[in-house]
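Title: Prediction job returns without error message
Component: structure pipeline
Severity: low
Priority: P3
Assignee: unassigned

Description:
Job completed but the reporter wants confirmation the result is attached to the right record. Sequence as submitted:
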Amino acid sequence: MARPSATIPPTLRNKLRYTAAIAEITRGGIDARREDGSNVLLVWRDIVGAVARRLPKDYASATFVDIVSTSGSTLRFLAWTRLAGDGAPPPPPNDAPQTEAECALAVLNVIVQHCPDITLDPATRAFIERRGEAAQLPDLKTLAAHDERLA
């Protein structure tokens, strides 16, 4: 899947929680390695929700998708998360570059396909339906509160 950026921007390295550096989408779930080096294996049946947002302006307003499951297993997908596996979103036609929003929508589509009964908050539903920009977290304090709810 083409991405706006293949690497973590230096200004965001080690600053975001839950960030998946590499994720393999499989028939059974998502096998990921986070930026901090920890491994997380999410089984499809354990995923309970997904949230799409944009980071605060302090963090370049990058679009992300949080996959929510059991405590301690949240995975955050950003445009630089490397996706692999048979279940990974297909590349765009003609291998055209994708925007961050398009990358996020591709991840959401895979999750919803495998987990049709997950919870999507109203802002994430609006993002999927309108195909525009995800709702933005206004500041770092709000990001911290968002992260604590997902812990």
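Comment from assignee: result matches the submitted record. The longest helix spans residues 100-114.
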